[in-house]
Write a structure and sequence with these properties.
Layout: E1 8-12, H1 17-28, E2 32-37, H2 40-52, E3 56-61, H3 67-81, E4 86-89, H4 104-132, E5 135-140, H5 152-172, E6 177-184, H6 190-198, H7 203-212, H8 222-232, E7 244-247
Parallel strand pairs: 1-2, 1-4, 2-3, 4-5, 5-6, 6-7
Helix pairs in contact: 1-2, 1-8, 3-4, 4-5
Length: about 250
């Protein structure tokens, strides 16, 4: 099944984890993918995996917190491929701490990387999508948007992603652009492994603990998030816009 034949996609934060899985899934279904991370070198192994499987991809370095860099990256994608059809905003960081111990710079860093960067990327992408009267934007939120101890910055940013998504769906919908968000629960990635290390737990022990509290009794895999993103980026979701879809194993 190749739902994305002749489509051009940008995936940010795509050097590892969920972003890498999304880039590989879109490429496997026919898209040419710009694999974007802080440096092209970081993104290159994912591109090599895609091309080895017969797909098309390029590695691009971009600091998505820098509006000028985002504009340059987006223009480079269009100059290379002639268009931009799909934008997946996945880049993000964590700087966890309880409120009374959180430095202001950690609040600022997470809000800038996890929320402001999406604004910059969406603003740059719409300059190309609006004239084409076509586009699919998928933003990565999180179950933490509902509140999570020790993540006041991350939770606020991910809640903001949902507001951004709903508003852009209203503004961009008249131009044939769908905007949605995916909110994963706990997924086995390097980022969640770092959380385990921060709280002094073995990674596997931490995952087992989370699994016991999840109705499906396991943690998620990056490929499972990628499949939902691919759905929202496809014509199968042509009448879905402004939504946040939680992918969390049934957790409440």
């Amino acid at each position: 099944m190749e739902r994305f034949t002749d489509r051009i996609a940008v995936v940010t934060g795509a050097a590892q984890g969920i972003g890498a899985a999304i880039a590989q899934r879109l490429a496997a279904e026919g898209a040419a993918v710009a694999v974007v991370d802080l440096s092209a070198e970081r993104a290159r192994p994912v591109v090599e995996t895609i091309t080895a499987a017969g797909g098309r991809a390029v590695a691009l370095g971009c600091d998505v917190t820098d509006p000028a860099a985002v504009t340059a990256m987006t223009d480079e994608v269009v100059a290379t491929f002639g268009q931009l059809d799909i934008l997946v905003n996945n880049a993000g960081i964590t700087r966890d701490n309880l409120l009374f111990k959180m430095p202001a710079q950690d609040w600022d860093a997470v809000l800038t990387t996890n929320l402001s960067s999406m604004f910059h990327c969406c603003q740059a992408a719409q300059r190309h999508m609006v004239p084409a009267r076509y586009g699919k934007i998928v933003n990565l939120s999180s179950r933490s948007a509902l509140g999570n101890r020790g993540q006041v910055n991350y939770a606020a940013a991910k809640a903001g992603v949902q507001g951004l998504t709903a508003t852009l769906a209203i503004e961009l919908g008249p131009y044939g652009i769908n905007v949605n968000a995916v909110a994963p629960g706990f997924v086995a990635t390097a980022m969640t492994a770092a959380v385990a290390a921060r709280i002094g737990m073995d990674t596997e022990q931490h995952r087992r603990q989370v699994a016991e509290q999840t109705p499906l009794r396991r943690v998620g895999r990056p490929e499972e998030i990628a499949s939902v993103v691919a759905f929202l980026a496809s014509e199968d979701a042509s009448y879905v816009s402004g939504q946040t879809l939680y992918v969390n194993g049934g957790a409440r």
